[in-house]
Every structure is written in structure tokens, then in C-alpha cells.
Amino acid sequence: MRIELIKRPQQSALFSAVSPLLALGLTVLAGFVIFSLLGKPPLEALYIYFVEPLSETWQLHELAIKAAPLIMIAVGLSVCYRSNNWNIGAEGQFILGGIAGSLIPILMPGFQNFLTLPLMLLFGFIGGAAMGAVPALLKTRFNTNEILTSLMLVYVAQLFLDWLARGVFRDPNGNNFPGSIRFPSAARLPEIIPSQGSAHLGIVLAVIAAAIVWVMMKYLLRGFEVKVLGGSPRAGRFAGFSSSRMVFFAFILSGGLAGLAGICEVSGAIGQLRETISPGYGFAAIIVAFLGRLNPLGAIAAGFVLALTYLGGEGAQMSLGISDKVARVYQGLLLFFVLGCDTLIHYRIRLVFGDPVKAQG
Amino acid sequence: MDIFQSVLLTIATASTPLLLAAIGELVVERSGVLNLGVEGMMVIGAVCAFAAAYLSGNPWIGVIAGIVAGAVLSLLFGVLALSLATNQVATGLSLTLLGIGLSGMIGENFVGRAGARLPNLDIPVLTDLPLVGRLVFGQDPLFYVSIALTAAVMWFLFRTRTGLTLRAIGDNHKSAHALGINVLKYRYLAVMFGGACAGLAGAHLSLVYTPQWVENMTAGRGWIALALVVFASWRPWRVIGGAYLFGAVTIGQLHAQALGFGIPSQLLSSLPYLATIVVLVLISRDRRLTVMNTPASLAQPFVPDR
């Protein structure tokens, strides 16, 4: 059996809209198979996984907490990937943003006023952007592959955070546990509706970021530049666009937003700098960006879907004893199906059985 | 002198998985395909090898399981990136994410168990030779496999007609297709070879290097292997040099950690990753050299017209 691709004369509008949903459906189906193989009741598991985390208000808040960093990072990544630059080190930029923003409450605990939080967020953005600028600099100056350098920096960032949280930034009164002092309330991102749940302003900032970037991509020259240079660097050069400036723009934007997400997580959800601050948000956000079809608004919806896999994973572990690792498997499969289904936008797929020569005649 | 030999031995052990994974990926990239899923295939190879060896009590069954697991996972990449012509960068990434998740799930019941170690070669008299006896005749079997495999890949790519065809596909898949070569078939085989090698590299980690299963035990080695291919500018013999350089850095920083020196252990642990970046920068600085050596069709999807 062979798979044959037949180019469509033009992009299929139908599959452009349907393909993410198709991918989701296939992932749920795969979940059915996985749960059956694990010997768990598949329907019940799927219910716990995908429906139960949405049934109460406080759970929706939890969902928003998980979705906020995913959306914020994915918005930047979708621009970066559109421009054909491959930043896969968002996890490291997230961490560095968290560190940079935490400098203020840790080093200047007395500095508590209305400027504290905005400055922290600014520092977070700058920290992530600086981390993102490294692969961009290496790519433009030395022609170095940005995929590998940005990824290597993730490990460096993780070890750096570990060193800070166990060493110089450790709370002296923390009984030798790793982790900084708990942030004062002026350095905490406030909760949206404290009476209902613990979701903090991060989700609002993420949605605002998505809206701004969406406007940029749709209406501003810079957005056009991203699309032209991403689609055809040659055409971009003829239009007078600089591809090395685009590399910097893409990496600084995506790195900065990842950093902003990092400080939002630290000051909103966690409240102190710990030795680990991310359950792999930087990598899951890559899936979010693709599931959202590299569109900033699509990233909002996709971010909630991925956040659901995190919550569902926790729920399934508690009530059915299913390993929370299943969430990771789900996320990987989802990206697989998204990419596979996207082929349908440009091609019709035909299965050819038997001898290809005979099949043609 | 015994210390000298034992340091060299540990370097060889640390370098072997890098060499195995990189030599497989080199063949994949020579065929014009970029599979960024090495890390995922490696970690799946590691967990399947450990599980099979633990359950059967025979480490060789573990080795086979690692190879098969890596190849099967690479087939998934093949279906998407080759048959469905998806973006290779994104597909490879998803393979890594899936591999890490799946390995965590499979390995959950094996954490902390004592595994079966693949025994070292032991030839009477020869292995006990002074100075070099253990180095040449007393290492783990996969060390010899990695060297032999590198030699075989060199011979295959540059001395056989099939190897020439494979390189031609990597440089210009359209011309190769026009000459009647089945591009996708070659690429499928290359991708599966790469997967098998990555799986074998993982098996080395969980059966020789540290004979146990630890979640995420590959710790970025798959990515370092990818960097090694670039470092070697797609030449097999240079991969050996690169792999041993990284093995030496890894072992060197471990010894430095043991000795202390007052340097934070985290800084030392990050040395292999920083070294990767430095080496990549040094090697890619010469734009002409990179352009000349990179397979011209690398990472470009190919859809045959009928």
C-alpha cells in the first residue's frame, strides 16, 4: 500500500478550518486506545480527562492558570515560525524571564509600590528577549543553526535557575529548602476574581498579547514582512526586507513573550523563585502554536486545549491511578495529528493498493 | 598509568551513545531528511531496552528491543514527513515530545530497579595486557559496534553505488526522481536506519553507561548527536572525533565535580551544552564550508509527481 499526495489547485478552505478539529478527534480516539491498553475503562477515563476539569468554576480558574503561559509563549512562537525561524528554546527563555523579573522582589524586598509589578514584568520580558537574542545573534553573525543553539540554552537555563534557587537566592530563613523568599503582595500578580478561584492576571495579559500580535500580523507592515520573508526569503529581499533583522525580531518577540510568561508564572501562580518553575510549558507551547495554525488568535483556543491535557492528566492520576505521563503522550500525539491533518489543506490523499504501475494504467 | 586507562575507558563509554546516534542521523541527513526526533527515539530505545533486559534477564534481548523500538518510532516520523510531506522540523520535534512522554509512561514501573548490565568483552591474556589491554580488548560490545558501524557507513556512503544514490537523493531529490530512483523508498530506509541507531544508542545508556532506568535519562544527548552531525560536516570519520570530544568534556566535568574546586556543580553540568554551542559556532562560521557540505535537499519535503 502506498500513500499518494495529489496537489490541490488551491488551498482547501474546508480543511483549513476543520483540520485542527480533526486532529483533536483523532487524539481523543487515540486516547480511547491507550486507556483500553492500560486496562482502564476508556469512556470513563476520557470523561475524567476532558470533561470533568471543566465542570466547576474553580477548575476553570485552574485551566486559565495553565493556559496563560501556554498562550503567551505560543503567540510569540507563531510569529517566529511564520517567519521561518525555529526557536525551540522557549522553555529556557521562560526560565530566564522568571529569573530576571524576580530580581526586584529578591534583591530589593523593600521596594514595594505601584511600580514593582510593572517593572518586574518589564524585566521578565527583557530577560526572555535577551535569552532569545543569543541564538539570533549566533545565527546572523556566525550562520549557526538556531534550532540546536536555542535548545542547548534550555539546559543551561535550567541549571542556572537550579543554582540560583539552591544558592545565592535561597531564602536564608527557609530551613535549607531550595527556593527564594516568598514575594510580598506588591510583587504578586493579582487574582482576577479572588472570591471564585485563583486565576491571576496572566491570562488577561496573554489574551491582550495575542490580540496585539494578531493586529500586527494582519494590518501592519511588520506582519506582512514576517509572512513574505517566511514564505520566500528571496522575494523578501527584493522587497527590501532584511532577513537578519527579521531573525532578531522573531527571536526577541518570541523570547520576550516567553520571558513575560515566565515572570507571570513566578509572580502569579508560584509566588517565589523555585528550582523548577515550568512543567514543560515552553515545549507544550510549540504544540499550541501549531494547533492554533500559527495564528495568534488560534493560539488562545489551542492554549486552553493543551491546558486541559495538563489538568486532565492530574485528574486521571488521582481518580483512576493513570500515570500523569499520559498527558505528555497526548501532547506529542496531538502535534503529530495536527501536522498530518494539515497536509489535507494542500493535498488530496489517495491510498494506492498493489502494483503502482498497474494502478496507473 | 592505570588511572589513565580507566579515564580513557570512561570517556569511550560516554562517547559511544553519541557516536551511535550521530552516525545514524548522518545517514538520514545525507538522504536529505532532517529528523529532529533523535532524542525521542533514543529515550524510547533506552526504556524499551531496559524493560526487555529486566523482564527477560538477558541484556542482549534488551539491545534488540532498543533497536526495534527506535526503528518503529522513526517509522512514525517517516509516515508523516515522507508520505504526508509535513514540515520536518515540526514533525521531528513532535517525535521527541512523544518519545519523552511515552518513555516516562513505559518506564514508570522500572524506576529504581537494578537492571542487567551488558558484560564487557573479556578475552583471556589479551584483555589483561598492560596499558592498552582493557582499552582495546575489554570494553563493552556496543563500543566495538559503534566503531564498526562508523567504518561501515563510511564504506557504504563513499564506496558503494547505493551509497552514491543516497547522497545524490540528498543533494537533489528532483533529479534523482527524474532518473527513476524511488526517492521515498531510500529515505524510508535511511530514516529507519537512523531510528535503529538512536534506539541502540539509548540501549547503551540503560544497559551499559548507567544500567538502570531514570526518567529523561538521555538528558539532551540526542540533541548533541544532531549537533555532532553538523560539527562533522556530514563526514562519518569526523563524527568519531566529535563524539569523543564531547565524551571527554562530559567525563572531565564529572571528575571536576568530584574534586570540587569550589565551582558550582550546575556550571560544570552545563559545560557539555555550552561546548556544543561553541563548537557549532566555530564550525558554522565559515559559511562557504557549510554550504558546500550540507546536503542541498536537507529538510525539504518531496512529493513525487506521477
Could you characterize the architecture of this molecule?
The complex is a heterodimer of chains A (361) and B (306). Chain A has 361 residues and is mainly alpha-helical. Chain A has one domain: Orthogonal Bundle (ABC transporter involved in vitamin B12 uptake, BtuC), CATH 1.10.3470. Helix content of chain A is 70%, strand content 3%. Chain A has helices spanning 13-37, 42-50, 57-82, 90-107, 116-142, 146-166, 202-219, 221-231, 233-238, 243-270, 281-291, 296-320, 326-346, 356-360, and strands spanning 2-7, 347-352. Chain A has a two-stranded antiparallel sheet with strand order 1-2. The longest helix of chain A has 28 residues, at 243-270. Chain B is an all-alpha fold and 306 residues long. Helices cover 73% and strands 0% of the residues of chain B. At the A-B interface, strand 1, helix 6, helix 11 and helix 13 of A face helix 3, helix 4, helix 10, helix 12 and helix 13 of B.
Fold topology:
The complex is a heterodimer of chains A (361) and B (306).
Chain A: E1 2-7, H1 13-37, H2 42-50, H3 57-82, H4 90-107, H5 116-142, H6 146-166, H7 202-219, H8 221-231, H9 233-238, H10 243-270, H11 281-291, H12 296-320, H13 326-346, E2 347-352, H14 356-360
Antiparallel strand pairs in A: 1-2
Helix pairs in contact in A: 1-2, 1-13, 2-12, 3-7, 3-8, 3-10, 3-11, 3-12, 4-5, 4-6, 4-10, 4-11, 5-6, 5-10, 7-8, 7-12, 11-12, 11-13, 12-13
Chain B: H1 2-30, H2 38-56, H3 59-83, H4 88-107, H5 133-137, H6 141-159, H7 161-171, H8 173-178, H9 183-209, H10 221-231, H11 236-259, H12 265-269, H13 271-284, H14 287-293
Helix pairs in contact in B: 1-6, 1-9, 1-10, 1-11, 2-3, 2-4, 2-9, 2-10, 3-4, 3-9, 6-7, 6-11, 10-11, 10-13, 11-13
